[in-house]
Amino acid sequence: MKTVKIIAGLVFLIMCGNVLNVSLNSGMGHGVGFDTFLAGARDPWQTFINNDLVMGLVLTMSWVIFRERGGRVLNTVAWVWMAAWWGNIVIAAYVLRAAYQADSDWSRFFLGRHAPGATAPAPMRLPALMRALCGLGAAAAAVYLALGLRQSGGALVPVLGYALGFLPVILSLALLALPRRAA
Question: Any transmembrane segments, and where (predicted)?
Fold first, then answer.
């Protein structure tokens, strides 16, 4: 399990570096990469690579959906939507989360609450300061989304890129800021 944590952590850090590079050198003003992804469709090899990566994400998102089944639906929607848009940085974060929840039990890692003898993981309890920061992050992402939509001038690809890219970020941060109440 330690190796999984190390690999997922490295992937997460590398992808964070890539996001920072894109943000600094290209920006998000053209639809959070959506136009670049679509532009690659002209080349058969780029189409193959794009489809290969997307199918890997679909396979991984299927695992996430299975593993999260029985939990809060909004959490599953947030994980899958974020993975669909932001890719392997989200998958690496999910794998890290699953590895820590599993506590060195491989069946719990792969099956989550569905592993033999497993109980539902305790709801994550963030300190009030972290919840407040997540709420501020959700608000900041919403402002960034609104500014990006305004800057796009209504062009379809950037509008879709901003909306599909930042709505799950807002949802995820809001879910962290406003955890599920006990029944």
Answer: 45-66, 78-100, 128-147, 159-178
